[in-house]
């Protein structure tokens, strides 16, 4: 080989090897897409994400008698229902960052709703673009504070600042600000824009749509046509709602108390933070500092959810009309759960089931058999690797999730994960919930509250699905507690999670106990 040619080859090799380092030093990491996975025809994907929709408030589950969600029910009936889908942090921004990056919160570092998303993060739609997809984002982004500007990975972008509003939203559409009037309802607007964009797509490229609703985040506001629809619905009070009741607690009389007679209630070993949170912004005795009451809150949530259900129906109807409904995969998922009175709490953040568990449905007749029930535990971290595998893109090495495509196809999977991990980092704005780490298997959940003098928790989920019998002091359960504790800290150590990210605090306290103090 001539010397000059060899030099050129060596130079090209040096550039190839060091270009990623150069780009990383600039803050943006290169998106490396390897050769397509063999035999994969990239599939059209629609990913619909709702906000704070808990896992069981859907018509087909029967949890809320009278609640009607025909379109979510249809997804479950014609596709797959993941009965054990979880988020690794039950909070808007951290969970959204985990969905987009396939990473835990302590890895992507968006540990709360105020933390900016570092420029070095890679979002899975960036890989889809490289693989030839047309990609579009509609709705709530919520990472990086108040900035509605376009983010990497999307050919088309429509978003709003922070949480957004239900009525008359202002959107940033590809960098341009557009204000909507005349009682425009955000769920309907985003859905219509997503469908309009789909209509404009040519069939020579696969598409990916990320439809990210504001609903059903509080303060709940239903579409006008849904207001009052559940005025007379029978409200369900969970069995654990009354475990922390005190003499001054409001009497909840409008709804029906769940029958807890078959469970053992251990009222002695309830964490102190749970008792205290009952009378706080996020507790049933002093919800939003007394600005709303539980029964009204419950009704508004259900009515707001109807707009989400209709959105799913409109997307499915469009796909059918366009002849795309057999081959396109439609996902529906919640970004975190929501307590409605369990343990005397409302909201998410904590590690109880109703907070960390989310609805996850997927429909694609060409891929998924009707009425598929998936029992294995899947995570928000798995969304990115799953969608990338369907696009023929090999999982990038920084992603910590696993593709659940084989589970959807009904293929035998012998080595699926048998435990999941959970993390939540204390926020100054909502100080009633401590930092906590959790490990959950199909049978047990072990939760450590970090940085507070309080009792930790161990539940046998098979005997005690509502987590009302804390076994942390049980002699016979000491070996399992010890084992889970070790696995929890091994996970944190192995994934570099031992450095708890601290955030500076710049304002006075705002909770009702210490308001106005530094
Ligand atoms: Ca949320």
Automatic annotation (TrEMBL):
Give the PROSITE patterns listed for this entry.
Answer: SULFATASE_1
Keyword Hydrolase among record annotations: yes
* Residue stretches making up the Sulfatase N-terminal domain: 43-393
**Keywords associated with the record:** Glycoprotein, Hydrolase, Signal
Give a single Pfam family match.
Sulfatase
Q: What's an example of a GO molecular-function annotation for this chain? A: hydrolase activity
State the Gene3D superfamilies in the record: Alkaline Phosphatase, subunit A
TM regions (residue ranges)? none
UniProt keyword Glycoprotein present: yes
Q: Which InterPro entries match?
A: Alkaline_phosphatase_core_sf (IPR017850), Sulfatase_CS (IPR024607), Sulfatase_N (IPR000917)
Q: Which family does it belong to?
A: Belongs to the sulfatase family.
Name of the protein in its database record: Acetylglucosamine-6-sulfatase
Species, as recorded: Adhaeribacter aerolatus
């Amino acid at each position: 080989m001539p010397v000059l040619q060899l030099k050129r080859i060596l130079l090209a090799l040096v550039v190839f090897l060091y270009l990623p380092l150069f780009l990383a030093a600039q803050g943006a990491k290169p998106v490396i897409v390897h050769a397509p996975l063999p035999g994969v025809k990239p599939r059209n994907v629609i990913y619909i994400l709702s906000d704070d929709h808990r896992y069981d408030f859907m018509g087909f589950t029967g949890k809320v008698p009278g609640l009607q969600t025909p379109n979510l029910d249809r997804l479950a009936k014609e596709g797959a229902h993941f009965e054990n889908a979880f988020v690794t942090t039950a909070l808007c921004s951290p969970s959204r960052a985990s969905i987009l990056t396939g990473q835990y919160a302590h890895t992507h570092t968006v540990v709360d709703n105020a933390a900016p998303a570092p420029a070095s993060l890679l979002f899975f739609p960036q890989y889809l673009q490289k693989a030839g997809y047309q990609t579009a984002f509609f709705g709530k982004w919520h990472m990086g504070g108040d900035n509605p500007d376009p983010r990497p990975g999307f050919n088309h972008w429509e978003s709003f600042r922070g949480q957004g509003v239900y009525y008359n939203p202002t959107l940033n559409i590809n960098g341009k600000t557009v204000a909507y009037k005349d009682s425009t309802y955000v769920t309907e607007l985003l859905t219509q824009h997503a469908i309009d964009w789909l209509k404009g797509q040519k069939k020579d490229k696969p598409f990916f749509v990320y439809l990210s609703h504001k609903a059903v985040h509080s303060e709940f506001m239903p579409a006008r046509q849904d207001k009052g629809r559940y005025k007379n619905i029978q409200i369900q009070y969970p069995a654990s709602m009354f475990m922390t009741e005190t003499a001054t607690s409001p009497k909840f009389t409008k709804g029906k108390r769940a029958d807890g007679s078959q469970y053992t209630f251990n009222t002695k070993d309830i964490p102190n933070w749970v008792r205290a949170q009952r009378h706080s912004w996020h507790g049933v005795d002093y919800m939003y500092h007394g600005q709303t009451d539980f029964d009204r809150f419950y009704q508004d949530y259900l009515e707001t959810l109807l707009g989400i259900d209709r959105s799913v129906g409109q997307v499915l109807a469009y796909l059918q009309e366009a002849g795309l409904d057999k081959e396109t995969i439609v996902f529906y998922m919640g970004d975190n759960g929501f307590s409605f009175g369990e343990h005397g709490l409302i909201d998410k953040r904590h590690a109880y089931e109703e907070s960390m568990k989310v609805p996850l449905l997927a429909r694609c007749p060409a891929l998924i058999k009707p009425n598929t029930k998936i029992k294995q535990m899947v995570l928000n971290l798995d969304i990115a690797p799953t969608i990338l595998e369907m696009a023929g893109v090999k999982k990038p090495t920084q992603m910590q999730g696993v593709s659940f495509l084989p589970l959807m196809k009904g293929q035998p999977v012998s080595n699926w994960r048998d435990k999941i991990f959970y993390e939540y980092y204390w926020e100054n704005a909502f100080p009633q919930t401590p930092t906590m780490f959790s490990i959950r298997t199909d049978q047990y959940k072990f939760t450590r509250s970090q940085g507070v003098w309080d009792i930790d928790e161990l539940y046998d989920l098979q005997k005690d699905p509502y987590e009302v019998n804390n076994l942390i002091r049980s002699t016979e359960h000491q070996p399992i507690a010890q084992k889970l504790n070790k696995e929890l800290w091994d996970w944190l150590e192995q994934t570099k999670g031992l450095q708890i990210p601290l955030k500076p605090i710049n304002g006075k306290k705002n909770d009702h106990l210490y308001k106005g103090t530094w």
